[in-house]
Design goal:
- By secondary structure, the chain is α/β, with parallel strands linked by helices.
- It has four domains: about 90 residues, no CATH class; about 70 residues, no CATH class; about 170 residues, Rossmann fold, CATH 3.40.50; about 180 residues, Rossmann fold, CATH 3.40.50.300.
- The protein has 22 helices and 23 strands.
- It has a seven-stranded parallel β-sheet with strand order 12-13-11-14-15-10-16, sandwiched between helices.
- β21, α19 and β22 form a beta-alpha-beta unit.
Length: about 550
């Protein structure tokens, strides 16, 4: 027995004592291969999963490093069967390899003939394969490269893809480093991606993922398709590329609901790409419209299912996924691994904060007690209506006002999920409201006014969750969310993390109705941020308002 901060259990759960002096080092050591499951105050629970181990293996971590981290930080002897299982699981990655054969094209080979024989007999895999070349090698239909990798992952034999990539149509792109240079972690992220050929870079919001994309484009020097969450985000990408690279405005096209430009660098929205016309995804033809040398997926954790299907056909092209979190609420992390690529670089949020590249943030959960009338309405409501009622309780309104009074001159975002609630807040606070129906031109004008300091407060829906650059924002008040979405919580905090010129701390408030589903979902939303080292302080609304809330229900 040692005094380590970690308890490693035979069911592959890891218990981390948060207050232990070595907890931060242990968290960093296990992060590449363990996923956070629960994060109460004193002990966080992680789980070692096959996908996490394979991601670690693809990123260059070997089983010896994983075992060493577990043994070094464990308080008790690590169960021997778990260590054996770690070694065996990581050893499954790469036993099958995809490569280009000089005579036969795309082939799958194995150093372990028994594994090859096993997968050849899988009913869903066999149709994707061609003739057997020798005992260890079989031809793969080139169009099935992505589908094959998906299926191999599902049967527990993830393939290492060494088949390489087409160069695509050449196009001159260089970084225009005039008075700035890539930060060390950005350069490392690009190197990790380029060495692997395809994959995902995970960086905190505000840490400059767009510059990683631009630097990858400069390495590829080829036509590039960039997929983004919305038109405003796409235009931010365009502005950043014009400012940071040698690309001109005429070389960058916008493919959105408003324009359909296809140029050497084309920025398209997921929404347009996945729009159906008479049951068909006609805009998916954009993927074949040019000989793309690079495809960039911004906010890759939001990738819609139709784009997954098209990405399965793009395996010969370099693919870069950018995200602040690989958490997907639909459980399709395995598809990101198979089709976009493994995690090539992951920087803990707190590490980037300590380097001064993102702002420090204080997270506070404010618990509101519903009025008697609201409690009765909640108790008697249908199950599917309860979360909405708890999230939109009017008792939250004076609490939001009290929070804003604490930060009178600071640029503030009030964020929610329910439009009627946001309209009420906008009216009560005298703030403009930005939601899905707000025209892009009006959105951009309001965001520009906020950046310029002409507007100090904005009420925004989930349209501001992703890829909106508002570096001046220092306070965010979340009044409602998409149930227990961890990715949404991370993205909303991310709106505040651009470093402030005066070094100010950011403040993130989540206003939650006590004794309701709102509290339960809030706890789930906070899990990812807890993994990154952010602790929520819980305060009672009475501490902000005084002992009695008015009955506004």
């Amino acid at each position: 027995m040692t005094d380590g901060p970690l308890i490693v259990q035979s069911d592959k759960t890891l218990l981390l004592e948060v207050d232990h002096p070595a907890a931060a080092d242990a968290r960093t050591a296990i992060a590449p291969f363990a996923e956070l499951e629960r994060a109460p105050e004193h002990v966080h629970t992680y789980r070692v999963t096959p996908l996490a181990l394979w991601n670690a293996r693809a990123a260059g971590h070997d089983a010896e490093q994983v075992v060493d981290a577990l043994v070094r930080y464990s308080r008790y002897a690590v169960p021997q069967p778990l260590l054996v299982d770690v070694v065996d699981t990581m050893g499954r990655y790469g036993r099958l390899q995809l490569a280009n054969h000089p005579a036969h094209g795309l082939v799958m080979s194995s150093s372990d003939r028994a594994v090859l024989e096993e997968v050849l007999r899988q009913k869903k895999i066999a149709p994707l394969l061609g003739a057997r070349i020798d005992d260890d090698t079989v031809i793969v239909h080139p169009s099935e490269r992505g589908n094959l990798k998906q299926l191999l992952l599902k049967v527990g034999w993830p393939a290492e893809d060494l088949a390489g990539y087409v160069d695509g149509e050449a196009h001159a792109i260089d970084l225009a480093e005039d008075g700035w240079t890539l930060r060390d972690y950005q350069a490392q992220a690009v190197e990790g991606f380029w060495a692997g050929g395809s994959g995902v870079v995970v960086l905190p919001c505000g840490a400059g993922k767009t510059l990683v994309g631009a630097a990858a484009m400069a390495r590829a020097k080829a036509t590039t398709l960039i997929l983004v969450t919305n038109t405003v985000s796409g235009r931010q990408w365009k502005r950043e590329l014009i400012a940071r690279t040698t690309l001109t405005e005429d070389e960058i096209g916008e493919y959105s609901g408003e324009k359909k430009e296809i140029r050497p660098v084309t920025i398209a929205t997921y929404q347009v790409i996945t729009r159906r016309t008479k049951g068909e995804y006609k805009h998916l033809e954009l993927f074949d419209s040019r000989d793309w040398g690079l495809v960039v997926y911004d906010e890759v954790h939001l990738l819609p299912a139709p784009v997954f299907r098209m990405t399965a056909d793009l395996q010969s092209r370099r693919r870069l996924g950018l995200t602040a979190t690989l958490v997907r609420e639909d459980g399709r992390e395995g598809d990101v691994f198979s089709l976009i690529g493994p995690k090539r670089y992951d920087a803990p949020w707190r590490d980037i904060e300590e380097q001064g590249w993102i702002a420090p943030a204080e997270c506070t959960e404010v618990r509101v007690t519903l009025t008697e009338n609201e409690r009765i309405m909640y108790a008697t409501a249908d199950a599917e209506e309860r979360y909405r009622m708890a999230s939109t309780a009017r008792t939250k309104l004076p609490v939001v006002k009290a929070i804003l009074d604490r930060h009178p001159d600071e640029p503030t975002l009030v964020i929610g999920a329910y439009l009627d609630q946001l309209d009420d807040l906008g009216e009560a606070l005298g703030c403009p409201v930005i939601q899905g129906s707000t025209k892009n031109k009006e959105r951009e004008a309001l965001f520009d006014a906020f950046r310029a300091g002409e507007i100090k407060r904005l009420v925004v829906s989930k349209v501001a969750n992703f890829s909106i650059d508002l570096p001046e924002a220092t306070v965010a008040v979340q009044v409602s969310g998409t149930f227990g979405s961890r990715q949404e919580e991370a993205q909303r905090l991310g709106r505040l993390l651009r470093p402030k010129g005066d070094g100010r701390q950011a403040h993130f408030y989540s206003v939650v109705s006590r004794d309701t589903l709102d509290t339960d979902y809030a706890a789930h939303r906070q899990r990812f941020l807890a993994e990154q080292g952010y602790a929520y302080r819980i305060v009672d609304a009475d501490d902000l308002l005084g002992p009695a809330l008015p009955d506004v229900g």
